[in-house]
């Protein structure tokens, strides 16, 4: 039994599940074993540890928040017909108390999904959380209370918040990706001489075993035989 979480349907076979998600949802990458009907996990996505994900957002948010507001204020698209409310709000918010913490709490909620965001399903779940959080009544009331005392229209405030959310989301993900690449590069491990010798031995053993196997076969491909003979005749690579 495999369950489709979108339509709450239970399909009897794996083939039926694959056909359903491919035709109905255009998601052929979904794995049947992650959607088993007797799976009691709250979400089929693997819960890989991500405590550093939550912490890193809190660390990088202040600088990104300020840079994003300044970028919006300088964006010529918001000045096509003079100073727009979006541009003016981006300047006012820099000096308005409580706004930074409000948006920080919002994105901490979005990124506290317990995922590493390495897989497509992880990111889909995170964006689902983002949508649920930013369209909720609590979020709308929150930013209206913050900006309600200012002399801006409700439409102008809504436009500004939507632009700020999209820009912040993109910048946060970009910054995390870049920092993760730097961290991975700095923590790259070099293979030891012992491990390298083991790998060379295994590779040589496989090549010689295949050569022995194909030498006994009359129907073996001549190209494969020639390739294996060449591999087995190559001199060993000296240690670096």
Question: pLDDT average, as an integer?
Answer: 76
SSE succession:
EEHHHHHHHHH
Strand content: under 5%
Q: How many beta-strand runs?
A: 2
Give the biggest beta sheet. 2 strands, antiparallel
Radius of gyration: 28 Å
Number of structurally distinct domains: 3
Compute the separation of the termini in Å. Answer: 54 Å
Strand order of the largest sheet: 1-2
Structural class of the secondary structure composition? mainly alpha
Helix content: 55-70%
pLDDT under 50 segments (min length 5)? 39-50
Shape: elongated
Characterization of the model:
The protein is mostly helical. It has helices spanning 14-23, 51-74, 85-93, 99-111, 120-134, 137-147, 154-186, 193-215, 222-233; strands spanning 2-4, 9-11. It has three domains: 2-35, no CATH class; 51-186, no CATH class; 193-233. It has nine helices and two strands. Helix 2 packs across helix 3 and helix 2 crosses helix 4. Residues 39-50 have low confidence and may be disordered.
């Amino acid at each position: 039994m495999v369950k489709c979480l979108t339509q709450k349907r239970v399909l009897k076979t794996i083939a039926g599940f694959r056909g359903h998600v491919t035709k109905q949802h255009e998601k052929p990458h979904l794995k049947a074993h992650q959607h088993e009907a007797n799976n009691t996990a709250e979400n089929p996505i693997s819960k890989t540890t991500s405590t550093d994900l939550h912490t890193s957002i809190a660390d990088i948010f202040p600088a990104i928040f300020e840079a994003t507001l300044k970028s919006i204020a300088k964006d010529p698209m918001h000045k096509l017909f003079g100073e727009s409310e979006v541009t003016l709000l981006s300047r006012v918010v820099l000096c308005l108390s409580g706004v930074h913490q409000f948006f920080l709490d919002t994105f901490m909620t979005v990124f506290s999904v317990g995922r590493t965001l390495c897989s497509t399903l992880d990111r889909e779940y995170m964006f689902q959380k983002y949508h649920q959080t930013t369209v909720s009544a609590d979020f709308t009331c929150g930013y209206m209370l913050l900006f309600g005392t200012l002399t801006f229209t409700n439409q102008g405030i809504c436009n500004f918040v939507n632009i700020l959310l999209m820009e912040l989301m993109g910048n946060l993900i970009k910054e995390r990706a870049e920092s993760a690449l730097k961290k991975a590069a700095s923590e790259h491990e070099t293979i030891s001489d012992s491990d390298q010798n083991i790998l060379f031995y295994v590779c040589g053993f496989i090549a010689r075993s295949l050569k022995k196997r194909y030498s006994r076969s009359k129907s073996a491909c001549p190209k494969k035989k020639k390739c294996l003979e060449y591999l087995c005749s190559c001199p060993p690579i000296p240690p670096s």
